[in-house]
């Protein structure tokens, strides 16, 4: 082997060694894939939470088949039923009585039978009515019982039924085939109507007295974001008859003027006796109402991930997170609800649920001025939206499918319509930097668990959150977004809102949300206690000639329901809490405090003929004895007959004693919305959020978050760059990993 060959081989060997070193160094610098660790929390009984679980699609179908075979009357699919037919409007879980559930959860009681609540419309009867049946036991139904009289004191009149999707479709067909053709010149020349370019929005309630089913329908250009494209035409349809052929137009409104019907409007138009406001035809994307971004893409927004995997677990309908556990469900009418909420293994609340979302509108157009939407009637659960990962919830949240049966004989699946995630709020839950005496830092990141659903009811999107904090606090919050509702701008319209576009009046309206909060603090029996502050004048003991105004604690036990009903504008004690029959280490009654965030004004004058239907909105807080016969503050039937409400919350408050009883807090939060130019194209959530907090008040002997694994503490004398001293120093190692982002999917446009 000559020297040249040796040098060549030596060069190849050095090159190989250099390449291997580069590969090894590159591997060392490359982030590894994040390794998931199992969540650290106490195991609960695997299947106990199923007592609150939503019906499965199979159970819903079993209920439908049972009712079809055992009622002895024909049942038409609600998706194609006429008002004169019998149909199943909805099937939902019948939540068992609380006493039965607690015996099962806490004692040796049997599991309550699993049952469904079915709402049926009987239009094909000598006396048409709405009937509610409890059907069970599931999954193999063998009985049904009519609970309508038991719940409501009598049969529910048929005119109170919530409007099915098919009825709106039938009204649309009526307008298209019979109403619009009676004004051909006006519809063609002014509306440029081609049979598909107009969208219709319903007002509600439907009339002025019990028995009415007469609805204003407001017309818009049928483009993206049509809610802000009014064309000035509104039609009042009397659809009270069960015979669709008997439906009729009662009034027509156009650009500030009322007409007997479309024929009279046509005659006035042809004779040149009306003031025409021609609306510029909008492109299909809505132009100004389009939500398509107006800016090109730039750097990606921050994305949150869990370097060691989720620290919570979801099993069936139960969530476990650190010291928290709870069961969740989705009611077809009221949406997201929670049960059996426990902290450190002890129940603090039996139920937290949404009851109603109310909006009261003002306008100088008939549809707007007569609108008082009670969204429970439309279905906050029914209209729960599929969620978009990365916007509606963090991309790596846990997504849960939900199912419902309404307006059909078949269950409907809503893919990824509920999300659960841990959220780092980017701020400390608590902290202190000591620069006096000793030098140290102590703090805890505010990382909380969120369970969320979003309901899109017409123009509005409601983001419903329940948030669980490490200090034992629970927050319920709703954020409103979506499109503002609008009227056609004419005359004195600016008395009722702001101009948003050429012919668009953003109409003033209120939002009121009502919650049911069944707290069980240290047991089922609680009392309601109010603490506040008052100033007292006293002489300084060390200088008697001087006076001091000092705050002192005031205490009062609220003994009766009347004392515990706080009107919206009344002064409420700043600390009001459910008190247990036990004390903490320091001798104080253990409690959970209710703290409301709300900007609500008057809901509606109490002299109004429909006020009793929404009388829950009189109160920012009302605490009553818990009763099985008072499960909800309102009813799905109140929307279409608010003049004779099926459920009147004001009747719950009858001065009963509430000391050492099982109590329920009914909480109302709300705000005023005056749409403004920044609501175009869409209302933002910022500033449009209300809700309440449930906070431990002497419930523990000290803040339970001190036991969190996330705590940070170091002194000036410690090496706070060392991982074993300061967990934040571990981040370069523990958080330098690549999360697994699954491919983006969305099922919101399937099976519409």
Automatic annotation (TrEMBL):
Protein family per UniProt: Belongs to the copper/topaquinone oxidase family.
PROSITE patterns (UniProt xref): COPPER_AMINE_OXID_1, COPPER_AMINE_OXID_2
Lineage start: Eukaryota, Metazoa, Chordata, Craniata, Vertebrata
Alphabetical keyword list: Copper, Metal-binding, Oxidoreductase, TPQ
An annotated Gene Ontology molecular function: quinone binding
Species: Hylia prasina
SUPFAM superfamilies, alphabetized: Amine oxidase catalytic domain, Amine oxidase N-terminal region
One GO CC annotation: plasma membrane
The enzyme's E.C. designation: 1.4.3.-
List of residues that carry 2',4',5'-topaquinone: 460
InterPro entries linked to this entry: Cu_Am_Ox_Cu-bd, Cu_Am_ox_TPQ-bd, Cu_amine_oxidase, Cu_amine_oxidase_C, Cu_amine_oxidase_C_sf, Cu_amine_oxidase_N-reg, Cu_amine_oxidase_N2, Cu_amine_oxidase_N3
A GO biological process held by the record: amine metabolic process
Cofactor binding description: Contains 1 topaquinone per subunit.
Copper amine oxidase catalytic domain ranges (all copies): 304-706
UniProt domain Copper amine oxidase N2-terminal: residue ranges: 75-143
Domain Copper amine oxidase N3-terminal residue range list: 161-256
UniProt modification remark: Topaquinone (TPQ) is generated by copper-dependent autoxidation of a specific tyrosyl residue.
This protein's name: Amine oxidase
Known cofactor(s): Cu cation
Active site: 375, 460
């Amino acid at each position: 082997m000559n020297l040249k060959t040796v040098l060549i081989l030596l060069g190849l060997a050095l090159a190989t060694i250099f390449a291997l070193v580069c590969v090894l160094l590159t591997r060392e610098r490359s982030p590894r894939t994040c390794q998931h660790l199992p969540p650290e929390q106490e195991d609960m009984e695997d299947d106990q939470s199923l007592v609150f679980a939503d019906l499965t699609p199979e159970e819903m179908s079993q209920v439908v088949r049972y009712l079809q075979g055992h009622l002895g009357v024909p049942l038409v699919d609600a998706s194609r039923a006429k008002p004169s037919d019998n149909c199943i409007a909805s099937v939902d879980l019948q939540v068992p009585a609380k006493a039965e559930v607690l015996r099962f959860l806490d004692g040796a009681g049997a599991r309550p039978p699993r049952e469904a609540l079915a709402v049926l419309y009987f239009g094909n009867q000598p006396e048409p009515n709405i009937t509610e049946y409890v059907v069970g036991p599931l999954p193999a139904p063998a009985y049904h019982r009519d609970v309508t009289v038991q719940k409501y004191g009598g049969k529910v009149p048929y005119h109170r039924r919530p409007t099915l999707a098919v009825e709106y479709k039938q009204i649309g067909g009526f307008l298209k085939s019979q109403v619009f053709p009676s004004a051909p010149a006006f519809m063609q020349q002014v509306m440029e109507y081609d049979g598909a370019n107009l969208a219709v929005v319903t007002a509600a309630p439907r009339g002025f007295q019990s028995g009415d089913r007469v609805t204003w329908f407001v017309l818009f250009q049928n483009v993206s974001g049509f809610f802000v494209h009014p064309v000035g035409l509104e039609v009042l349809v009397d659809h009270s008859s069960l015979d669709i052929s008997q439906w009729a137009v009662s009034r027509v409104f156009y650009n500030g003027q009322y007409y007997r019907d479309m024929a009279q409007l046509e005659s006035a138009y042809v004779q040149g006796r009306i003031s025409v406001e021609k609306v510029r035809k909008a492109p299909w994307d809505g132009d100004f109402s389009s939500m398509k971004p107006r800016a090109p893409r730039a750097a990606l927004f921050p994305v949150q991930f869990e370097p060691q995997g989720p620290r919570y677990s979801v099993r069936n309908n139960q969530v476990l997170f650190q010291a928290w556990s709870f069961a969740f469900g989705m009611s077809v009418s009221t949406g997201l609800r929670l049960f059996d909420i426990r902290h450190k293994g002890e129940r603090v609340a039996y139920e937290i649920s949404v009851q109603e979302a109310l909006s009261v509108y003002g306008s100088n157009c008939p549809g707007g001025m007569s609108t008082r939407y009670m969204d429970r009637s439309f279905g906050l659960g029914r209209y729960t939206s599929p969620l978009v990962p990365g916007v509606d919830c963090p991309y790596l949240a846990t997504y849960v499918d939900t199912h419902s049966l309404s307006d059909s004989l078949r269950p409907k699946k809503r893919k990824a319509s509920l999300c659960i995630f841990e959220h780092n709020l980017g701020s400390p839950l608590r902290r202190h930097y000591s620069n006096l005496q000793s030098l140290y830092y102590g703090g805890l990141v505010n990382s909380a668990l969120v369970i969320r659903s979003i309901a899109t009811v017409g123009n509005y999107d409601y983001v419903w959150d329940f948030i669980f904090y490490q200090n034992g606090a629970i927050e319920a919050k709703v954020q409103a977004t979506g499109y503002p509702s609008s009227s056609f701008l004419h005359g004195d319209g600016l008395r009722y809102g702001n101009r948003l576009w050429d012919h668009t009046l953003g109409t003033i309206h209120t939002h009121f949300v009502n919650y049911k909060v069944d707290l069980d603090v240290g047991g089922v029996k609680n009392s309601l206690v109010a603490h506040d502050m008052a100033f007292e004048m006293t002489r300084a003991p060390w200088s008697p000639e001087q006076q001091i105004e000092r705050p002192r604690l005031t205490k009062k036990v609220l003994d009766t329901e009347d004392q515990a009903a706080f009107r919206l504008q009344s002064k409420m004690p700043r600390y009001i809490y459910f008190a247990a029959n036990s004390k903490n280490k320091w001798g104080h009654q253990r409690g959970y405090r209710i703290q409301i965030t709300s900007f609500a004004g008057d809901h509606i004058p109490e002299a109004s003929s429909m006020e009793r239907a929404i009388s829950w909105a009189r109160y920012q807080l009302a605490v009553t004895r818990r009763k099985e016969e008072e499960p909800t503050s309102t009813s799905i039937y109140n929307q279409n007959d608010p003049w004779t409400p099926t459920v009147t919350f004001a009747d719950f408050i009858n001065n009963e004693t509430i000391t050492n009883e099982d109590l329920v807090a009914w909480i109302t939060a709300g705000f005023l919305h005056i749409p403004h130019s920044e609501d175009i194209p869409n209302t933002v959530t910022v500033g449009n959020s209300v809700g309440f907090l449930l906070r431990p008040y002497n419930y523990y002997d000290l803040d339970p978050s001190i036991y969190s694994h996330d705590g940070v503490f170091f002194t000036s004398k410690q090496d706070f760059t060392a991982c074993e001293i300061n967990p934040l120093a571990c981040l370069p190692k523990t958080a330098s990993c690549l999360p697994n982002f699954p491919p983006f999917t969305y099922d919101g446009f399937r099976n519409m």
